[in-house]
Amino acid sequence: MKKLTLFALTFIVACTTPYSPTDRPSIEQQGENREIIDYIDKRLSEEYYWLDEYVEKSGSFDRNMNWEQYLDRALLSLRSNADDGYINPRGERILYSYIREISNSTLATQSNGYGIVLYYTVVGVSSEDSNRLGFIVDYVYPETPAAEAGIERGDLILNVNSTDINRENYLTLFNTIQNSSTTELSLNLYRPVLAGSSEALLSCTMQRTSISKNPIVHSEVIIPEGSSQRIGYLVYTGFDSEFNTALVDTMSEFEAAGITHLIIDLRCNGGGSVSSAITLVSATLGRSYHDAVLCELRRNPRNTAVHNTSYCTLTEVGASLGLSDVTIICSENSASASELVIEGLRGLDIPVHLIGSTTEGKNCGMDV
Question: Fewest CB within a 10 Å sphere: which of 6, 12, 69, 277?
Answer without folding.
Answer: 12
